[in-house]
Amino acid sequence: MTGELRVSLYGAGLVATNVAKVLAGRNRIAVLGPYGRDERATALTGGADVVVIATTSFLADVADDIRAALEAGSNVITTAEEAAYPWANDAVLAAELDALARDRDVTILGTGLNPGFAFDALVLTACGYAWSVDSLRVQRVVDLSGFGATVLRRIGVGHTMEEFERGKRDGTITGHIGFPQSMQVVAGKLGVAIEDIERSMTPIFARERLVCRALTVEQGDSAGFEQHYVAIVNGKPWFDALFTGHVALSEIRKEPRDEIFVEGPTPIHLAAIPGMNPQIGSAGVVANSVRRVVEAAPGWMTVGDLPPAVPR
Question: What are phi and psi of 99, to 5 degrees?
Fold first, then answer.
């Protein structure tokens, strides 16, 4: 597409702010916002070429925002992790919004660093080397210290053991969101049917008081967590995803790291050292998706449906 693109950013957090910085340095892109929640109508219904919605992780919470932007004729990128593969959460809602996007001749994409790159797009790229894929393993070690207090507490940082277990049960502590979505994107592109996804989440408690940018973790409270997801295919583990997040990785003698293992007759092991920063990486993937969304076929797309994100 030629000419200037108008990109409206809804959400005044770190991701939208960083996306604005990235896009401001690029030719033929006009950045509108970032807009806060009190400027929702301006952000969503102004008819921008692309609306970026970076407000929350949950599909149900962004559905009305996506709908409003589509009705105004805009393509939509959302960082909501559940939107990376919305059929895993609400197939009826996904079908409705997909149909609306097709009717308006625009595209929806859920993306970020994870899901959107580390556990899906990059995995599929690694699979391009393989003659066939017997199984997959992806491991991430992530420094969580850059997140704000609200996100940290929601994903599981700053809680006593009792609070952590209670939060897991009632859904107020979620850990990182998006593993099933990434697994379904990869499986769909490889022609594999996932039968079940096993999951666990274990807190990592602070050995000493940790003073972080956004909050202070008292000794004995949760300073991080380990999440393990395993997709089952033909009764066997097929996609094994391990995520370790902590606000002070040195305390557990780890450093940021991302690794992908593709097992089969032509195995390959890719490692990114240091690991991909979640704030910087998410902004990069979103900014680099603007033009590929404008150029994509209408409807709700996944990162597996589109060419690689590149800075242009």
Answer: -65, -40
Whether residues 19 and 98 fall in one domain: yes
Nearest to 101 by CA among 60, 78, 58, 71: 71
Largest alpha-carbon pair distance within the chain?
Answer: 56
Report how many domains make up the chain. Answer: 2
Residue type, 64: D
Q: How far is CA 158 from CA 19, 186, 201, 225, 248, in A?
A: 28, 33, 15, 11, 12
Task: With a cut of 80, say whether residue 118 has pLDDT above it.
Answer: yes
Region 193-218: mean pLDDT is 96
Query: Do both 239 and 219 map to the same domain?
Result: yes
**For position 235, which CATH number holds?**
3.30.360
Say if CB 76 and CB 105 are below 8 A apart: no
Residues 6+ apart with CB under 8 A from 202: 225, 226, 227, 228
* Locus of tokens 């929350």: 56
pLDDT digits (tens, 9 = 90+) for 51-89: 999 999 999 999 999 999 999 999 999 999 999 999 999
What distance in Å separates the CA atoms of residue 178 and residue 175, rounded to the nearest whole number?
10
Q: Which residues pair with 51 in a beta bridge?
A: 8, 76
Helical residues (DSSP H) of 36-77, grouped into ranges: 40-45, 59-71
Provide the residue range defining the domain that includes 256. Answer: 121-275
